[in-house]
Amino acid sequence: MVRVMGYVVQVVLLCTVLTAIATAQSAGGNPASTPSVADGHATSESFDVNAAVNAYLAKMPPAERARSNAYFEGGYWLLLWDSLSTVVVMWLLLRFRWSMRMRDLAERITRFRPLQTALYWVQFIIVVSVLTFPLSIYEGYFREREYGLLNQTFGPWMRDQAVMLAVGVVLGGILMVPLFGLVRRLGRSWWVWGAVVTILFLAFVSLIAPVYLAPLFNKYTKLQDSRIKDPILSMARANGIPATDVYEFDASRQSNRVSANVSGFAGTQRISLNDNLLKRCTLPEIETTMGHEMGHYVLNHAYKGLVMFGVLVVIGFAFLSWCISFGLARWGENWGIRGMTDVALLPLAIIGLSVYFFLLTPVTNTITRTMEFEADMYGLNSARQPDGEANVDLMLGEYRKLDPGPVEEFIFFDHPSGRTRITAAMRWKAQHPESASPEELARPLFNTP
Ligand SMILES: [Zn+2]
Q1: β-strand 18-20 against 259-263: which pairing, if any?
Q2: What predicted TM-score, i.e. pTM, was given to this entire model?
Q3: Coil, strand, or helix at residue 270?
Q4: Counting C-beta atoms within 10 Å of the first and last residue's C-beta, which end of the chain has fewer, N or C?
Q5: What's the gap in Å between 50 CA and the centre of ligand 1?
Q6: Do 2 and 168 touch, CB atoms closer than 8 A?
Q7: What is the distance in A from the centroid of ligand 1 to the CA of 372?
């Protein structure tokens, strides 16, 4: 649902640098690893990184691997179907003049221009959500259930969709009203300031997301268990992070995926870990995950992400400006659109942005994947748990293909693949033999059928 907001939300998600990590199985915390090797040099030379990586990858049973590959590769096609369905729905709105009628209705209700824009937006997002609902329900509900990745029944799932729609109505309105105000005042050069407003909007959403949006979908509480909380806060202090609390949220409401994230912006930044992670991972695994999240924080990934996506937004708006001029000159009259300042052109703008972001998929994925890899390095250096890290990376394999080809990873992966991450962990371990944890290496992660 709310495919229109999808692109906005996609960028927002990228900006808040959400991290997801998949499931592990056994509960309880293992004691930290025991140093096992005396002579570091001898071990670093004899340690075969590739063999260690393959040994970890082999922990996932073939049937589990096949299921995960099918799920993830299906996602490649969904990228295409999502973009195509957006283009088709937008074209319908233009071709049959539904967009024009929504504008006319808004104009009959009020003479106040900003309110007309807002009223148009409300009709638009509801109509689009209804038209794209079949694909949304397949993608978000049936497909997730089929792969065992969704815990929700239909009722609670629909409730979340409805809340997302409500958020889309409000946030979209907040963006659309000033954007069309700018077009009316600035004419052809609107796109420069339009891009600036959009970037400010993304920063605003990142700012409010952890405090006002995330709690709409999950319950956030302060983590109490001092066996987990104390080592995490100690790591935070060591890394100069002024955190006094770690948040826990009930992600098990939606799925079994283990995840943690650092979200927020300019004062609302917080580190949260989900209940699946707490239930299913050992302390070394939780520590390496939190080290990764602290990396996002210390390396200022929220700000860097905003700058990099900001550049894409500016270029995107230049392209959008061209698309709108081109489309209106040819078909504007057929579609009942009066010109650049007419809110009824929104479907045309969405077509332009859909095509743009679809083509940029490898670029946006590379931006986030690169930051994720940086956070992995930070996690290894701060938590010093390469075996715990390899286990967490493997758990991701439940819904992210473990061992893709390099081109495939470049195009489709917004996080590094399991093989890339485990290779980094084993490379680190080879140089730090004292960090080896036989318990983590031996720990079974998947139910063998
Ligand atoms: Zn991350």
Answers
A1: antiparallel
A2: 0.86
A3: strand
A4: C
A5: 24
A6: yes
A7: 5
303 Cα to the center of ligand 1, angstroms: 14
Separation of CA 92 and ligand 1 centre (Å): 38
Measured CA to CA, the distance from residue 112 to residue 282 in angstroms comes to 59
Q: How far is the CA of 392 from the centre of ligand 1 (A)?
A: 12
Q: How far is the CA of 362 from the centre of ligand 1 (A)?
A: 18
Q: How far is the CA of 112 from the centre of ligand 1 (A)?
A: 44
Distance 350 CA to ligand 1 centre (A): 29
- Ordered per-residue pLDDT tens for the chain, 449 residues: 334 444 444 433 333 333 332 323 333 333 333 344 444 444 556 899 999 999 999 999 999 999 999 999 999 999 999 999 999 999 999 999 999 999 999 999 999 999 999 999 999 999 999 999 999 999 999 999 999 899 999 999 999 999 999 999 999 999 999 999 999 999 888 999 999 999 999 999 988 988 899 999 999 999 999 999 999 999 989 998 887 888 999 999 998 888 888 777 777 777 889 999 899 999 999 999 999 999 999 999 999 999 999 999 999 999 999 999 999 999 999 999 999 999 999 999 999 999 999 999 999 999 999 999 999 999 999 999 999 999 999 998 889 999 999 999 999 999 999 999 999 999 999 999 999 999 999 999 887 54
For 284, residues 6+ apart whose C-beta sits below 8 A from its C-beta are 30, 32, 33, 383, 385, 387, 388, 437, 440
Ligand 1 centroid vs 19 CA: distance in angstroms? 4
